[in-house]
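Teaching assistant here, posting this on the class forum so everyone can see the example we discussed in section. The complex has three components, and the goal was to see what a joint structure prediction looks like when all of them are supplied at once.
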Amino acid sequence: MTPKPILAAFGQALAEAWAGGAGALLPLGFFAGAAVLVPLGIGTDPDTLRAVGPGILWVALALSSLVTLERIFQADTEDGTLDLWLQTEAPASAIAAAKTMAHFLTAGLPLALLSPLLSLMFLADADATLLVHAAYYAIGGLAFYFWGGVGAALSATVRRGGLLISLIALPLYVPTAIFGALAMTDAPGSQSAPLLLAASALFALAAAPFAMAAALRLAAD
Amino acid sequence: MFSWFANPSRFMNLSNWLAPACYAAGTLLIAWGLWQGLWIVPKDDYQGGDIMRVMFVHVPSAWLAMASYSAMAAMSFVWFIWRHEVADVAAKAIAPLGALWTALALATGAIWGKPTWGTWWQWDDARLMSVLFMFFLFLGYIALRAAMDTRQQAARAGAILAMVGAINVPLIHYSVDLFTSLHQDASVVTADGPKMAAVYLWPLLSSALGHSFLFAALVQTQMRTEIRERRTARIRADLMAGG
Amino acid sequence: MIRGDRVLFKDVCVVAPMRSTVTLRGSNGTGKTTLLRILAGLTRPETGAVTRNAPHHWIAHREGLKPHETPRQHLALWARAWGSEADIESILQTMSLARPADVPARHLSAGQRRRTALARLLLDKRPIWLLDEPFTALDADGRALVLSLIEDHCRQDGCVIAAIHGDAGFEATAEVVL
């Protein structure tokens, strides 16, 4: 097996993400917009905001992953690129993983990097935990994007597949969301939550590419 | 063994008598279970008084919610590996019925919850949450199949999703357990475990078995319809190709 | 091959030895593209098997071009993916793509996009060419160019399987009518 096609697929996905013009700005805008709507909806009581802040960012992260994932495999199916990738020497699972990883780096990771800023808007204290939380968002985002990628691959041939992705991926997001939110509390039993969060991300990394590969072969059939 | 069942004609012959038998067994067992449960066994004030009698519907439906998803995933796996058409027909037939029983479990859970918890919904209840996510898994499966163009694509996409769901179910369970164990207060209704009085055991078992038989019977009816539909579609396609 | 409940075709046997050109014929909807996709290993046939004893190229309706890609970027990408050392500049010259080489695909004409896709054939030497309607959208020069590519390829021990609607413009070794 040669890694060349995998690297090329990774490069193409990165280039495609930036070619839209807005690049990572679009998901960032969505993320910030979704998060900022919340105080308008639930009021500005500082204690409430401080309590719901981390959870709101988890929800916003999950939603923006769903919104941006719709096109990653659908575009490839429509323009014929998928056919070409499936005929390279590299396994389809590796191609799918490379593309999803590129997508996470351009659309998911920036959200995690922006999270300390948004946390401050939710009146969190400005200390080092914000950076730790950003790392948690990044790890959790990885799991979101890989399970969401399965939904995206399964609905690659479906018109208006975005809604379908949400329905498919939502239950798969549950463990990561729970572990992630837990890791940010100091409730008893939350000490192991960061490890469980990382485990759920690793599980997604290990299992999701094979499901994506099967789904992409189906999309090309 | 799978191959033996995989023949649609053999399945049609088998289900021809097995489905009515399942209907009969299911109806009788549920009837006895409900009669015992609703009128004969004493109420348990610790479990909320008379409302605990909803247990004889709730527990079987919750058990079927889990069992039907497992069955659907197993059928998907069999189809994915061996491409036996009957397995796909079975998976397709199980999905809406599984969703129905899962909804039943949620509804009866809420009805039981209102007088005991004081609320229709309890985020702290691990089983309620797990069943809710099971419901979403079923909905996703049904929606995905419906969105596909041909029945071969629907079978493949459905099988992939059912298997992905199946490997995630234990993780979902575990995370939900962890989530609820941290937020829990004392008001947990236990319908199982050593606390359960023996008088409830037999009606409950009878009801659970009855629901299973009824479920199996309905699945077979659905499968028979589906197989006939596929045969009709094939004949129609052949006719169109010929004429 | 069955699509939905419709039997597209059955009992098809395609053998393409070295130095041969096989054309797939048939009116719209008879399954030319599907058969080609089966030969490429993209679509799984209901029954039967495909044996390819050499690597192949794939050119289809959907060219595999991203809207933001220029012909030069496209060729560079696939040269990287396939580990090819081919001289991209000379390929662009051959395919008369030197002028629009740096124009994103969304601004290219249909013929230029097709030429870009066909240019992949020259990136990597592969004995089997699977072409779906290779002449679509091409002008007279383009047709002549593709014809000469096909002839050269056959002379160099290659084989071509092409789904073609209308006049092929070359003498096919064999024809499969669906």
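For the discussion questions: The first helix of chain B runs from residue 2 to 5. The interface with chain C takes residues 149-152, 230, 233-234, 236-238, 240-241 of chain B (CB under 8 Å). Think about how each of these relates to the inputs above.
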